Amino acid sequence: MFDLFSVDDHIIEHAKVWTDRLPARYADDAPHVIERDGREYWVWEGETFPQMGLNAVAGKPQEKWNLEPVRFSDMIPGCYDPRARAEDMREDNILASLCFPTLAGFGGRVLNNYADKELASLCVAAYNDFHIDEWCAAAPEMFVPCIVGQVWDPVAMATEIRRCAAKGARALSFPEGTVSLGLPSLFSDFWNPVWEACTETDIVVCMHIGSSGELTNPAPDDGPFVLPIALGNVNACAAMVAFAMSPVPRRYPTIKLALSEGGIGWIPSAIERADRQFLKHRLWAGMDDLLPSQVWERNIWACMIEEPFGVKVRHDVGIDKILWECDYPHADTLWPHSQKQVAELLADVPAAEAKAMTSGNAEELFRWKIGVGGVGGV
Amino acid sequence: MFDLFSVDDHIIEHAKVWTDRLPARYADDAPHVIERDGREYWVWEGETFPQMGLNAVAGKPQEKWNLEPVRFSDMIPGCYDPRARAEDMREDNILASLCFPTLAGFGGRVLNNYADKELASLCVAAYNDFHIDEWCAAAPEMFVPCIVGQVWDPVAMATEIRRCAAKGARALSFPEGTVSLGLPSLFSDFWNPVWEACTETDIVVCMHIGSSGELTNPAPDDGPFVLPIALGNVNACAAMVAFAMSPVPRRYPTIKLALSEGGIGWIPSAIERADRQFLKHRLWAGMDDLLPSQVWERNIWACMIEEPFGVKVRHDVGIDKILWECDYPHADTLWPHSQKQVAELLADVPAAEAKAMTSGNAEELFRWKIGVGGVGGV
C-alpha cells in the first residue's frame, strides 16, 4: 500500500463559509445560498450562480455526470464536510491532501470579478480563515493549507500571505494566466509584492489549470465540453513556459511553482522546445542565459494522476519534480480506487522512485510530513 | 547522407505574383509592392504591410535577426526565387520540399480579411497558379504543390481544390483554428465541401502553426516574442485534439491531416490525455467510441525538426506518423546544416526508421517519389 500525498483536491464550500464570517451589513451581498424552483443557488452582489454538477462527481457513475446544477444533498458529504473528506481520504490511504477552492475560484479568480473590492477582500480573508481554521483544523495532520489572495491588489495580497503563513499556510492558489483576468502578466513588476511574500514565507505558488478563467477551446460554440477538458495540459504548458522565461524566477531564485492538474508527460517536449527557441532568439531579444530548462529544474514541480506515458518518461521529466494528485471530487479522480490505480501505474517503477513521486517530493516541497503535518518554521 | 523530404518550407512571394495574374482593373487593389522611405512594402485594398524580417532569416547570423521590415535585396534569393531555392535545397540534399505561402497567409488566412471577396478569390487562384505553374514548375521533381483556398466560401474552395488537384496539387494549407478567423469550427457542417474535395482528390490537409492567426501568448503586452514562438506546439495540440474529436474523421474516414511545424514530442502525452478524457466524458456527452488515439493512428501525421526527446519517444509517437521539415527560410531552419543536424538527431536510430521519418512516410503521404516527383493518379 502506498502512503499517498495528493497535491490537488477540491473543496465545495458549504453554505455558511462567508455568512458565518462577514459583517452583518454584507448579509445580502456576501456569497450565500438560496433555494429556488427546488434547486440551490449561490447569490452574491445580487447575481445568481448554480453549482456545476461536474465539480462534484465523486462516487457517481459516469453516465450520470453532467453540467447541470446540483444540490448539496446530491453530493457525497466528503465534497463539503472536512471530517467526511478526511475519512474518504483515509479509505484510499491518502494521508495528506492540498485542496483548492470552488466558489472563490482557483487563484481567487471569481472574487476578482466582485464590483465591491472591500467585500471581495473580506471574502478572501473569510475563505482563508474557513480553510485553515475549519477545514484544515478538522484533520490538521492531513489538510495542507492552501490560500487565495486579492489578485487585484498585490500589496494587500502580500499582507494576507504573511498573515496566513503565520497560521500555517503552505501554498497559494494563483491564476495560471493573469492577462485574461484583466491583470498584468508575469513580465510586469505589478506582482513583485506577492513573489516577495511567497519567497519570504516559503509558500508554494500553485497554478491550477483553468484558474486563468480561460479554457483552450477550438470549438466554443458547437464542440463538446470534453474538448477543452482534454486540452487542460495546454494551459499548464503556457503557464510554465511563460514563468520560465519571465523575470519572476530571475528576481526570486528561490520561488517555488507547482503546476496543478496539468499532467507531466508533455513537459520534456515543452522544455526542449522552449530551450531551443530561447537559444535561437535570446540574442536579438536581449535576454539573459538562464534557460527554461534550468528554471524548470530549480523552481517548478508538476503532478500526475493517470499517465502511463508520463511515468514512462519520468526520468526525462525528473523524478524529483513529479507529484501525485487525487482530484477528489472532480471528474479526474479515481477515488475510491486510488491504491489500485497507483499500483498499476507504478507497477514497473522502483520503490524509491514511486515513494518520491507519491509522497516524498510533496513532503519536501510543502514542508509537510505524512501522518504528522506541517514541519519546519515559516 | 540522407535523402531528405521537407514537409514544411516557406515561399516569400516575389513582387509580381499577383500583378502578373490579376485583371488590370485590380492594379491598385491587388497585392503589389511599393517603395517608401527606402523600404519596400506590400499594398492591397489601400493598406500597407511590411515584410517581417523574422520570416527570412536563412543565411543570417542570429544577432542580426529582428522583426523589422526587410527588402527583397536583404534576403538571400532562395527566399523568393524557386531556382535559387532548389539549388539551396540540393546543397543540403533536400530532394523534395513542400512550401507554404507568406503574404497569402498560411491557409489563405490573410486573404480571408479582404473586404472584396471577388478580389480575394482571384488572389487565391493567382497564388495557386503562381505556386504550381511558376514555383513548382521551376523544379517539378522537388516542389510538392501545396495550395490555399477561399476559406470564407467552402463551395468555391472545393472547386479550387479540384481544379488544382488536376494540375498536380498534393496538399491544402488550411487554418489550424477557424473560430479565431470568424469562421465555424471543425464541428460544423460548413466545411464538408472542403473535406469531400480533399478525400476525393487525396489532397492532404496541412495545418501550420500560426495559421489560425492567433498565437498562444500569456504576455502579449510586455513579454518577449520568443514566448509565443516557444508555445507553437500548443496550437498544434489544440488543432489535433479538436480534429480527433470532431465529426471530420468520422464522416471522412480516409481524410489525411498533417500538422506542420508543431513538433512531435508532445503527441503521446496529448493523445493519452485526450483518450482518457474522451473515455470519462463520452457517455454523458453522447459521443461515439472512436478514440482520439485511433484517429491519430489512422488520419494524422506530424513533423519534427530538432527534437531529441521526440526521437527518443518515436515509437510512442509512431514511426510511420513522423515527417521531417527544414523550415527554410524561417528561424527554425538549420539549413545549410541539415545533413549534420539530421545525422546527429538520428545517430542512434536504425536506418529503416530514419529513412521512414526523413523521406519514406512523406513520400507515401503525399504520393511523391524522391528524385522523381508526383506519382499515382488524382
Write a structural description.
Two copies of one chain form a homodimer. Chain A is α/β, with parallel strands linked by helices and 378 residues long. Chain A has a single domain, classed as TIM Barrel, CATH 3.20.20. In chain A, 36% of the residues lie in helices and 15% in strands. In chain A, the strands form four sheets. Chain A has a six-stranded parallel β-sheet. A three-stranded parallel β-sheet of chain A has the order 1-5-6, with helices on both faces. In chain A, helix 3 packs parallel to helix 4 and helix 6 packs across helix 9. The model of chain A has no long low-confidence stretch (mean pLDDT 95). The interface between A and B is large, with 67 and 67 residues.
